[in-house]
Amino acid sequence: MTSTRPKAGAVLSLGRIYCDMVFRGLGGMPQLGRELFADEFALTPGGGALITAAHLAALGRPAALLARFGTDDLSQSLAGKIEDLGLDLQFLDRHETAGPQLTVVMVQNGDRAFLSRRAGHARPASFEASLGWVDAAHLHIAEYATLHEMTDAITAAKHQGLSVSLDPSWDDELIRDPMFFERAAGTDIFMPNMEEAEALTGLKDPAAALMVLSRHFPVVALKCGGDGGMVTASGETLHLPSPSVDVIDTTGAGDAFNAGFLHAWLDGGDVRTCLARAIDAGTRSVQASGGTGSLRRSS
């Protein structure tokens, strides 16, 4: 099994944009009938497509956000923050039915729980036009839920000569879709975390899960949290650890990992380089609050 690997170019990052309401400094998680208070709060743009694109842009990779975006007051309150991320917004599809789309993020001891609401459908009106963009080299699909709606996304991208990556992004209803691998066929780089890999393969051992996933995808980049990451490609499997750092918030760390890997891969990097860059990006991300917090902090 081989992957499409074009020359370096811009990335189209496809998925939903969320308004992330991040609550930090919790003594526990909410329980029915009880009220909790957070020490800190932040309202920030989120969603895998936006976070990966933002980290790509910060690395110097042209990245276009391919998404629908609401015209409601909550969505529009984040428009300035999105513009400040340095993304190409020419394919952003603004529509009243695309919002409010939000995620409540509850952070405790560095880990987090999410409560989200999707609004409208996922397909941007600009999708076909974006694939014909002369600068586009790669389509990153930030969640399987989007691919589940847009079943032609991979085929259409391949028809235009683009390579494709997919982050399944946990979804209780879809992660065990019996047609998952059929719908994801043609993906060049598959980018799950260990929980998603286990759900898809039934295997708890990372190396064993990678072996199964490699039957479906030519490159699999596996996020192992505090244990770093693993990658398998062309029969080679590699594991690299992550450095020990003070973890503030893991929100978006996997999306930052995706950006680091894709940036190096599109530059022709070998698997070790790609994995090392991915872990570096993910490590920086966990040291700030929110999926793009580390970018704002370093700007």
Q: What are its keywords?
A:
299 residues; alpha/beta; UDP-N-acetylmuramoyl-L-alanine:D-glutamate ligase; 8-stranded mixed β-sheet; 4-stranded mixed β-sheet
Q: Can you summarize this structure?
A:
With 299 residues, the chain is an alpha/beta fold.
What do these coordinates show?
With 299 residues, this protein is α/β, with parallel strands linked by helices. The protein has one domain (10-16, 47-99, 120-298): UDP-N-acetylmuramoyl-L-alanine:D-glutamate ligase (3-Layer(aba) Sandwich). Helices cover 31% and strands 23% of the residues. The chain has an eight-stranded mixed β-sheet with strand order 4-1-9-10-11-12-13-14, with helices on both faces. The longest helix has 15 residues, at 271-285.
